[in-house]
Design brief:
Largest sheet: none
Helix content: 55-70%
Distance between the termini: 127 Å
Oligomer: single chain
Length: 130
């Protein structure tokens, strides 16, 4: 142990639980409620609280407006998807019908070509002779 004498620690501030917190800051010291400084601080605080609450209300209002805009946009996009899906279905049906007709036509042509060819002009007949 050192030979230095230490003064017993005495709390500068004691909390409600009896625990020492050291010297209180300038702001945390109790002010007399009737002083001009206290009244000015309270007035400034009241103004700050009003501004903060107004900003909070404005932000909430903007958020609600954005949610409504996005919901409307989403609904419009869902309708567009439905319309495009129907259009795709119609186009698929048309394509398949056309593809089916082309296949039938090709089969009919192959069937007629597999029979004895009938020359209809000179080029066809000369080709067959070779």
């Amino acid at each position: 142990m050192s030979n230095k004498k230490m003064a017993p620690k005495r709390p500068d501030y004691e909390g409600s639980d009896g625990e020492s917190y050291g010297k209180p800051s300038k702001r945390s010291r109790m002010m007399e409620k009737d002083t001009d400084e206290y009244l000015k601080r309270r007035e400034r605080n009241n103004i700050a609280v009003k501004k903060s609450r107004e900003r909070s209300r404005q932000k909430a209002k903007e958020t609600i407006e954005q949610v409504n805009r996005l919901r409307a946009e989403n609904e419009m996009l869902e309708q567009k998807v439905e319309i495009l899906s129907k259009e795709l279905s119609v186009l698929k049906d048309l394509f398949l019908a056309h593809a089916g007709n082309v296949a039938q036509s090709e089969r009919a042509i192959e069937a007629t070509e597999s029979r004895a060819p009938i020359p209809d002009h000179q080029y066809s007949s000369s080709k067959q002779k070779q």
